[in-house]
Amino acid sequence: MLVSPPTVSTRLGAIRLFAQAARRYWLEVFPVVRSAQRELLRRAEAIPDPLLREDAIASHRDKGSNSEGLAALAVLAPAAARRDLARSLVAYQLMLDYLDCVSERPAGDPLGNGACLHRAFEVALDPAAAHADYYELAPCADDGGYLVALIEACRAPLRRLPSLPVVQDRLLRQARLCRESQALNHAQRFAPIEERLSSWAREATAEAGVEEELEWWEVVGAAAASSLAIAALLALAATPGRTDRDASAVEGAYFPWASGLNALLDSLIDLDEDPVGTSHMRRYPSPEVGARRMRMLAASARARLSRLPDGKWHEAIFSAMGTLYLAQPQAWRPGAAPVSRAVFDDLGPLAGPALCVHVLRRRGRGSRALFGALRSPRSDEVQTTRLRWPT
Fold first, then answer.
1. Position 287 pLDDT exceeds 90
2. Are 167 and 233 in contact (CB under 8 A)?
3. 3-class SS at 335?
4. CB burial string 285-308: b at 16+ within 10 A, e below
5. Among 254, 39, 231, 71, which residue's Cα sits nearest to residue 150?
6. Nearest to 343 by CA among 274, 264, 278
7. Number of other CB atoms surrounding residue 99 within 10 Å
8. Per the domain annotation, does 321 fall within a domain?
9. Does residue 125 contact residue 155 with C-beta atoms inside 8 Å?
10. Which of 86, 94, 130, 151 can pair with 32 through a Cys bridge, CB separation 3.0 to 4.6 Å?
11. For residue range 181-221, what is the model confidence (pLDDT) as tens digits?
12. Cα distances (angstroms) measured from residue 234 to each of 142, 241, 265, 378
């Protein structure tokens, strides 16, 4: 049985750690993030094809907080590497979100199209790789060099990372899993391939050495929708003297645990937007079951993160990433609220301060429902309440 790790043992220690993490992020990382986002948005606005331009701009407008959040893992790197790493992570996340939009457009061969488009994930993490024809099977192709610009922005600093050789194989494995799962995940919009997705998930967990029983959508979501494992491995690569044992521990903590929780929180926020057949959260038979599964993912992730080198920093980022979703009003709608409350309860002592910061950044939007739900009985006291997914 997993127990909450004692990494942050006192309220004073939690406050001190939160202040240190906040200073690193807001003073050293966030200004670089904003600069990188603006530069890449200008490239997006210049895309010749109107549909691709729309997809690229949407990834900035609607999902800009994703790249802000992923860049938070740059605080794990040595100070001298944080700026470069932040730029790389912004580009990688914008690439993921852009291709996520492009993949949703109908194509003659949806699975093949997804595989071609998402080859970009591996090229972006391999400084020696040659570019491919990413749009080979896509209905639109004239992006004015935007996708290549994202790839180059991501991999530009990689050769300067001292521990890259140690993590390279694991980085490329995570990128490959992301490519494969994204292609399958989007193809299910056009064809019934759940059995193939289930088979892929079993193979992926076996390859990663995961022995626990997981639902296939928890694994597919972890690989397809989350870039956390890649960001954590890049932060490790930026740190001198790291070993293969360190890289194995980081990959094992993030995939599929922290990554799975991150992906399912994203699905929870999009509960009313995603088609029923493609919403991973709706695959759970009820909010109660979803809450129990996500609590398990949160507890498993925290226990593993606490044992990593710089485990307290990983925990701090984990809390910040989780509460980034919980600060959104959609997380506290009827049906979603018990799931959000269950996750909040297991994010650790830094979840409260992190949630307050996110709410302030949103200028308090949705805070009444949020804090009202947090004042209600704890999640283990509402398990017998009859709840329904929102329709």
1. no
2. yes
3. coil
4. eebbebbbbbbbbbbbbbbbbbeb
5. 39
6. 264
7. 24
8. yes
9. yes
10. 86
11. 999 988 888 888 888 999 999 999 999 899 888 999 999 88
12. 30, 14, 23, 37
**For 347, how many CA atoms within 13 A lie in the half-sphere containing its CB?**
26
Convert the pLDDT of each residue in 27-73 to its tens digit: 999 999 999 999 999 999 999 999 999 999 999 999 999 999 999 99
- In the numeric block, which tokens belong to residue 115? 């595989």
Contacts of 236 (CB under 8 A, 6+ apart): 76, 163, 166, 167, 242, 246, 247, 250
Residue 389 lies in a domain: no
Q: Which of 125, 123, 216, 220 is nearest to 181 (CA)?
A: 220
| Residue 2 domain-assigned (yes or no) | no
* Band of pLDDT at residue 390, cut at 50, 70 and 90: low
Which structural domain, as residue segments, surrounds residue 195?
11-381
Q: What percent of the chain has pLDDT over 90?
A: 68
Determine the Cα–Cα distance for residues 38 and 80; give it in Å rounded to an integer.
23
Encoding tokens for residue 181?
A: 């799962």
| CA 244 distance to own-chain centroid | 23
Prediction pTM value = 0.90
Q: How many domains does the chain have?
A: 1
Is 388 among the domain residues?
A: no
